[in-house]
Design a protein that fits this description.
The protein has 67 residues and is an alpha+beta fold. The protein has one domain. It contains two helices and four strands; from the N terminus they run H-E-E-E-E-H. The strands form two sheets. It has a two-stranded antiparallel sheet. A two-stranded antiparallel ribbon has the order 3-4. Strand 1 and strand 2 form a beta hairpin. The chain is rod-shaped. The chain starts with 5 loop residues before the first helix and ends with a helix.
Length: 67
């Protein structure tokens, strides 16, 4: 990668160092409608009203199985 000015390279390096410290920022997430917590999309259940996290989904299925 080549830069026209040394300051451009310096700014690029500062930006990438700052972004490397927070890799989970770009991870897809949502707010669970059942518990209100922020959760990862992996393992979630999509409903007509929104999404519920994996833990709430398991609890919901356990209540359905018990009834």
């Amino acid at each position: 990668m080549s830069f026209a000015y040394p300051i451009d390279e310096h700014r690029f390096r500062e930006t990438t160092e700052r972004q490397a410290q927070c890799p989970g920022v770009t991870m897809p997430s949502f707010v669970c409608i059942a518990c209100g917590r922020r959760a990862r999309v992996k393992g979630c259940k999509r409903l007509t009203t929104g999404r519920i996290c994996a833990a709430c989904h398991q609890a919901r299925e356990a209540r359905r199985a018990a009834a």
